[in-house]
Known about the structure:
Elements: E1 11-14, E2 19-22, E3 30-35, H1 46-64, E4 68-73, H2 91-99, H3 103-120, H4 135-149, E5 150-153, E6 156-159, H5 169-175, E7 198-203, E8 221-223, H6 225-237, E9 241-247, H7 254-266, E10 273-279, E11 282-283, H8 303-308, H9 313-322, E12 329-330, H10 333-354, H11 370-384, H12 389-401, H13 407-421, H14 444-459, H15 463-475, E13 478-480, E14 490-492
Parallel strand pairs: 3-4, 3-9, 9-10, 11-12
Antiparallel strand pairs: 1-2, 5-6, 6-7, 7-8, 13-14
Bound molecules: adenosine monophosphate (AMP) and zinc ion.
The site of zinc ion has 3 residues, from loops.
Amino acid sequence: MSDTSPENRLRLFNSLNRQLEKFVPIHAGEARVYTCGPTVYNYQHIGNMRAYVFADTLGRVLSYKGYKLTHVVNITDVGHLTSDADAGDDKMEKAAAREGKSAWDIARYYQQVFERDLDRLNVRKPAHPRATDYVESMIEWGEQIEDKHCYRLESGLYFDVTTVPDYGRLARAATDAEDGEREGRIDEVEGKRNAADFAIWRTTPPGETRQMEWDSPWGKGAPGWHLECSVMSAELLGHPFDIHTGGIDHREIHHPNEIAQNQAHNCSADSAARIWMHNNFLIDRSKSELGKMSKSSGEFLTLQTLVDRGYHPLAFRMMCLQAHYRSELEFSWEGLDAALTRLKRMIQRLEKLAQDERWFHPSKAWLPTSMAESKIEVFHNAISDDLNTSKALVILEDMISLKKLDINLGRYLVEQMDVVLGLDLFNLSRADLRIRPKSATITEAEIEDALARRKAARAEKDFATSDAIRDELAAKGVEVMDGDPLGWEWKLGD
Length: 494
Ligand code: AMP
Ligand code: ZN
């Protein structure tokens, strides 16, 4: 499909001007995407994972539309402080002290856990470069922008935000209508010229040693957090590139600072990414007053928490896809149950279709019929409309439940849709989706055995035994589900 073809209707919401824009690639036939990755000092919570499911969906849509995708999700293993305001402790060093490990070990461990969670959510594997591998380039950037845009303080090298045009445009564009109180949000370092100025380099205070520090023209120290994304996007994707993504919090400080650095370095008013996209928060009202799930608010939910409660990780992916990425999404266990049930229904129907031999042998002489074309067309329109995944899911469900669709064609279409949505529909079975809490005290074999005995008792009209077996199971957290429409015979609770 050519980039200008009428087929290419992809429209994306650009936070820079708060408008839907047609996607026009900078390099014909290619899409280059940068996603701010995790700071690997702790587990990622499921709010963070929403950001990566969104970025993955974007990547899948671009690939589906035929673009050669280069997707970078950086790993922040240095430099991020406990506040975005260049004050507070270094997150990595603090975690190292907490866990009695080296900062390097902390970074490697949490990166591994992050990557495993991505796998479990069926997120395709983008490139994961680490910030610590780019410190030399970051120092070069600092040297190049120092004279015109930076000043030195005892604590490091700072960027003067008044030296670039229209600093903070991204945040203002996004928040003007909501509040006018951005000024004065960061002013915690003594001697800064402007409240919004930020560190390019953080010099280690005299007499202190950091585990992660490098020599630089501004003394031994570590790079400021914002610098890595400018440097890595320039090096790995080239400036300008197509799309930059992150969570909505990055629209306020991190991305405006990245843009300022890019403008300074590239001697241009351009932000360096054509489209800036931000996913809204996953919130959990039961956890904090504000509801935004965050690591600093103490307790938070990880994907592993969901797995331990017995949920398949893809139920969480389904939950994310049900909402538009720009809407807040409220997490609740009931919501997760509903997403799981929806996924189960799809799998149940596909398993039924799979009983037909032809399902596995799509005809080679397959030709699109007008019905298939129209189904794919509506699906295409939905995802092209700023990734309307909730609508796309409904179309997929429609497709799966069509009675009259040719079976080979059906499979082909479902496959096409699943490539975009990433629910892994052809590898999941209903058995995979059973709720299996880690705390369960009974095995599935034991449950099946008890149910077989109960069935035999019922066949003999021995209802006393049948009820006793049911109670026995209930005592172990197993609910027997006679006549369940989804065909589940039992369910394990906590
Ligand atoms: P961090 O590891 O804190 O740098 O965050 C990783 C990504 O998750 C960033 O893109 C954040 O903007 C995003 N993020 C943080 N909290 C949430 C949340 N509650 N819901 C959705 N995205 C979030
Ligand atoms: Zn970033």
